[in-house]
Amino acid sequence: MLEFADTHNAGRKTLFVEVILPLAIAKNYTYRVPFDMNDAVAIGKRAVVQFGKSKMYTAIIVAITEQAPEKYEAKYLMDLLDDRPVVTAAQLSFWNWMADYYLCHPGDVMNAALPSALKLASETKIILNKEHGVDRATLHDKEFLIVDALELQPELTVSDIAKLLGQKTVMPILKLMFEKNIISISESVNERYKPRRKTFIKLNSAYQDQERLKELFEILEKRAPKQADVVLAYIHMSRNGARVAKNELAEASGAGTAIIKALIDKEILIAEEVNVSRLLEESGEEPELTATLSEEQEAVLASVRNQFNQKEVVLLHGITSSGKTQLYIKLIEEAVAAGKQVLYLLPEIALTTHVIERLRRYFGEAIGVYHSRFNDQERVEVWQNVLNGSYRIVLGARSSVFLPFENLGLIVVDEEHETSYKQFDPAPRYNARDAAIYLGNVYGAKVLLGSATPSIESYYNAKTGKYGFAELKFRYGGVELPQIEVVSIAEETKSKTIQSHFTSVLMEDMQQALSKKEQVILFQNRRGYAPVMLCRTCAHTPKCVNCDVSLTYHKSSGMLHCHYCGYKEDSPSICPACGSAHLEYKGFGTEKVEDELSILLPEARIMRMDMDTTRAKNSFQNILNELEEKRIDILVGTQMVAKGLDFADVTVIGIISADSLLKYPDFRANERSFQMLAQVSGRAGRRGKQGKVVIQTYDPGHRVILQVIENDYADLYNNEISERKAFKYPPFYRMIQFDVKHKDPEKLFHQAEYLALELRKQFGDRVIGPEYPLVSRIRNYYIKTIMLKFERDSISLSKAKDAIRSMILQFQTTKLSKGCIVQPDVDPY
Ligand code: ADP
Ligand code: ZN
Ligand code: ZN
After folding, report:
1. 66-80, 435-449, 497-511, 792-806: which range is least confident on average?
2. Any idea which ligand is nearest the CA of 779?
3. Which of ligand 1's atoms lies nearest the C-alpha of 319?
């Protein structure tokens, strides 16, 4: 109607835009462009649109046409949010590939890709940005109203705000308020990168005067002798102008930090916090900015460079501490010097301040850090800085493949074998390593995969010539690999030399380390106290009310926890089934290891690192700091302790039970066990001292354990690759898993059967199942899985996926499918 009424625009074209909505819908939607926005619409800009009955969304424009949609009347788009596109053409083609490859919707990809503040929708919750004081005098009327309302009610949705202002679209106002830092998105997680800081102590300069110092001593010795000890220790330690760290002073003087604090309060001592990175620069402890490469490193670097002339991807296999990171830095320098951007991917858990600072020291302000634990505000900042080119390098976890690079020249995927590169939930269920390879393709960027324990797939690709290959065989500076000792739990049980879960070998090694003031890391791949509670009278085991799993006892909370859905209940003192008081715990987790250790080694300072102790803000980093500053003697943890930790004084590593790894029911069990054991072992004695690794197991002759001892990756690979071929697994076969879910087990059964039947019509005996998975009910959804395995080379992947896509769509149109969820997962492991 508008075009007839608006004579001014009468001669203009009628334009339509196709947009991606942040929703799981199969098709892009088309909107009509109001004439006055004809010149402003552009691909990659955000549009505010209405979808469904009354909901508003931020959508991304992906095409501009003069073609009206055939099946429906296009609504007008309501507003445009950007002067310049926030999503690049290269990104859109990457999104497209991802939706296609991983069998999901473009909206799923958009949701994963954009920080929340860039995709406001009616339901998005807004809060006042507390860190940023609001100067009311500078606010416009509408902003004033919003700030007022948010002071009364700390959280409002975008649609609440629309109602409040009595207007349909408020996104442009909110966008400006975001940019002015007045508001943010409400989130629970919020952890920013903080430089690591260390506290140093100085004596108040008033006491440089010897007379006054003497007076001070006399007073302190009378009234507070412990304080006098501290001052004495300080004078001793600071003698040659050395800096005195607070924790070292506490240790040397034997006084608690409370006593030091008392001296600080009296202004006798002065505390000063210093960034650790600055410290390193001053002391020159870290490698020089222009580290000279060893002969081996130099040769490998040349080889990588050379291979990049022919190959898009090169795999760098280098044992721990061989200098992989050093090579990455050289290659990054070269790419940046050539005017290119660089993406450096790391597993979430390895992205510690240690690594960040190491890179910051080389590249300064040109480096951005992107991490899912950062808050939305900061993610938007990184996004904008990558888009406008101020960040030349991004150091990031999985989701940084989605950043708006302009001219990416190099992608480094460190620890390329890591499972945490895979996103399991929600869609897109992508693997960031594989996505990075495609991303390299989009930009014409080179991709370097690095690992001490490469995935079987990547190694295969290197062996068959698809990827280039380079190998660092020696640790830098001749640091020795740790000595590995395997101890049979069965034998020590028989000889009664095992104390709770600690063999005599491990006990002795720990005691020795402690007596030398060295540190110990213990690895147990399970959190909580005990995974199963069992009634000895009737064999009853408490299970989760929502999931088909037994509940894990947590001593710290005194409750039984479900590790799948978070459900908790009080731990019973008598059996809920038969009333017997004979309850016992089966198995053991990190809590129990910590608990028993504190009884056996009461003098040791023990800390636990697992999901339970690292939930709070900064807690992960805090534990690492304490370990580094030697306030912890023994760290007990889950796989978190296996990643990227590099501490000089950790000389003993204990694997409490290797069996849970080795017996994992999945075709990757050997590969994963090798990776885990080799990575954990790599933590021992990284600098200077040779470390010791103790592996406790019921199966000391297990092939993988022997491979770990010999550090024989090639043997692992040769075994695995022939098994994979024989039993039809990747890299020879592709796998697509379908999780079929329903709240009604009966209906689920029939629907899964039906879907499998449909799949069989197309793919024959390449379809396996449906089967009940290990945990067949989670959050009250019953689950069956169907697996599709097909030959890598003889079937067209895209044809197969087209068939699957239409099959699922067709299934969803049947009555049968009501209430049923089908989740395809491509390359599920
Ligand atoms: P990786 O990434 O393979 O585990 P790193 O690059 O972290 O190995 O190197 C291990 C240690 O050796 C680090 O402390 C690093 O600073 C040091 N290092 C490696 N190569 C050199 C070099 N060429 N010059 C100086 N120090 C080096
Ligand atoms: Zn019972
Ligand atoms: Zn549960």
Report:
1. 792-806
2. 3
3. 3
How much distance in Å is there from the Cα of 777 to the middle of ligand 3? 8
Return d(Cα 100, Cα 450) in angstroms, integer: 27
pLDDT above 50 for 193: no
253, 233 contact by CB (below 8 A): yes
Q: What sign results for the dihedral spanned by CA atoms 358, 360, 362, 368?
A: positive
Mutate to test the pocket of ligand 1, among 285, 317, 322, 326 (most ligand atoms within 8 A of CB): 326
User: Cβ–Cβ contacts within 10 Å for residue 820, how many?
Assistant: 22
C-alpha pair distances (Å), 63 with each of 15, 31, 250? 10, 11, 65
Annotation: binding site for Zn(2+): 535, 538, 544, 547, 562, 565, 575, 578
Give me the amino acid identity at 646.
D
Binding residues, by number, are 535, 538, 544, 547, 562, 565, 575, 578
Looking at residue 340, what is its pLDDT?
95
Tell me how far the alpha carbon of residue 774 lies from the centroid of ligand 3, in angstroms.
14
Q: Which of 277, 304, 324, 325 to mutate to test the pocket of ligand 1 (most atoms within 8 A of CB)?
A: 325
Residue owning tokens 């908790």: 568
Closest among 658, 190, 674, 633 to 451, alpha carbons compared = 674
Percentage of the chain modeled with pLDDT above 70:
94
Residue 301 CA to residue 295 CA, distance in Å, equals: 10
Q: How far apart are CA 538 and CA 289, in angstroms?
A: 67
Length of the chain: 829
Q: CA 686, CA 688: separation in Å to the nearest integer?
A: 7
- Hey, which bits of 527-598 come out as E strands? 532-535, 552-554, 559-561, 568-570, 583-586
Task: Check residue 183 and give its pLDDT.
Answer: 84
Q: Which residues contact 112 (CB under 8 A, 6 or more apart)?
A: 399, 402, 423, 428, 430
Rounded to whole angstroms, the Cα distance separating 621 from 597 reads 23
Residue that is written with structure tokens 């003192």 in the block: 573
pLDDT digits (tens, 9 = 90+) for 123-154: 788 888 776 667 777 788 888 888 888 888 88
Q: How confident is the model at residue 643 (pLDDT cuts 50, 70, 90)?
A: low
Closest protein CA for atom 23 of ligand 1: 293
- Going by CA atoms, what residue is nearest to atom 19 of ligand 1? 323
Cβ–ligand 1 distance for 323 under 6 Å, the answer yes
With the most atoms of ligand 1 within 8 angstroms of its CB, the residue from 290, 295, 321 to mutate is 321
Strands 634-637 and 519-523: parallel
Cα 133 to Cα 137, 180, 192, 681, 764, distances in angstroms = 12, 11, 19, 49, 65
Pair 690, 480: CB distance under 8 Å: yes
Q: Is pTM, for the whole model, over 0.70?
A: yes
What is the spatial distance between Cα 675 and Cα 708, in angstroms, rounded to a whole number? 9
pLDDT over 60 at 286, yes or no: no
Residue 283's pLDDT band, with cuts at 50, 70 and 90, is: very low
Most confident stretch, 169-173, 459-463, 630-634: 459-463
Which atom, in ligand 1's list, is nearest to the CA of 327? Answer: 6
Q: What is the pLDDT of residues 50-76, one digit of tens each?
A: 888 778 889 999 999 999 988 889 999
Q: Which residues pair with 274 in a beta bridge?
A: 198
Among all chains, which residue has been given the structure tokens 């044809």? 799
In this predicted structure, the answer to whether residue 307 has a pLDDT above a threshold of 90 is: yes
Strand partners, 369: 395
The CB of 476 under 6 Å from ligand 1? The reply is yes
The finding on whether 326 has its CB within 6 A of some atom of ligand 1 is: yes
Share of the chain above pLDDT 90, in %: 54
Q: Which residues are CB-neighbours of 616 under 8 A, at least 6 positions away?
A: none
Judge whether residue 670 has pLDDT over 90: yes
> CA-to-CA distance for 350 and 381, rounded, in angstroms?
22
Query: Is residue 388 classed exposed, middle or buried when 0-12, 13-18 and 19+ CB atoms within 10 A define those classes?
Result: exposed
